[in-house]
Design a protein that fits this description.
Layout: H1 2-39, H2 44-66, H3 80-99, H4 117-126, H5 139-161
Helix pairs in contact: 1-2, 4-5
């Protein structure tokens, strides 16, 4: 008798948790689609829009997963004040994203080298860039080129002081 009751309780528990997972699956799929779009190229405005959509759907999905009584019809009504506040913040966010474009500054770019004057010219004459370092295609080659340059700099310093 006890085993029958235990079996019934377990079967009810597993079916309700399984039903909850299937009920929330469309939200999870929407979230995964948005995340796939985020991994591809997009403009700053599209990126902000995708992030807002992902945040909303992630919140809905999380509530669905953690609530046994969740339904998609139980969304809160949004007042005009909240909508206007959201529009203002999204406009501010878009402006700040536009400012972050590369080289959108009028400040001078300062490039400093390790050596100065005659020593710099001697270094430039001494340094021999390996052929595979002229067009680096992988990070492994890039690492090799940096190590090679550092070794050549150490050797140059030893020879230049003699």
């Amino acid at each position: 008798m006890k085993s029958v009751i235990l079996f019934i309780i377990l079967s009810l528990y597993t079916t309700s948790s399984f039903a909850g997972k299937t009920r929330c699956k469309p939200l999870l799929e929407k979230l995964q689609n948005i995340q796939a779009k985020q991994r591809s190229g997009y403009t700053a405005k599209q990126g902000a829009s995708l992030q807002n959509r992902a945040d909303k759907i992630r919140e809905q999905w999380w509530r669905c997963e953690n609530s046994s009584q969740y339904s998609q019809q139980t969304k809160k009504k949004v007042t005009k004040k909240k909508v206007n506040a959201q529009v203002k913040t999204s406009k501010k966010n878009n402006k700040s994203l536009k400012i972050l474009k590369p080289f959108a500054t009028s400040k001078a770019i300062i490039v400093q080298s390790r050596f100065k004057g005659k020593k710099q010219q001697a270094w430039l004459n001494f340094y021999e860039k390996p052929e595979k370092c002229k067009k680096m295609k992988t990070t492994k080659i890039f690492a090799f080129c940096m190590e090679n340059k550092l070794k050549q700099q150490e050797r140059f310093i030893q020879l230049y002081h003699q």
